[in-house]
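Entry 14. Ran structure prediction on the chain below.
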Amino acid sequence: MMHKEDIIENEISYKIRGCIFKVYNELGPGLLESVYEAALAFQLQQEGLSVKTQVPVPLIYAGQKLEVGFRIDILVDNLVVIEVKSVEQLADVHHKQVLTYLKLYDKKLGILVNFNTDNIANSIYRKVNNL
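Output, structure tokens:
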């Protein structure tokens, strides 16, 4: 059974995919991650979504909050984590990073995207944290 939050996250995810395609079609592959992050954040805001960039991720270890420098590239509507990459090839660690951020930040849905590709449709990955 789908909860209301799941429906909202799926709607947001659909809008995010559309924005990723717009940015990719405009800029193409081969630029820095920071360029795609800025363009995607702008495009998401144009869609009426609430966007935060470079959001610090707290790490609680042994009951202590540690500042370890983890940052979520883009957080959409305080629900969906987006990790932006522009690399030759995604590694397992990139997929694990998104799942770890979801767990640490207590979010359900993450999207990993690699803009350095010839086919953006095959370079968008949904990651789910079942909490």
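The first strand starts at residue 51 and ends at 56. Will compare against last week's run tomorrow.
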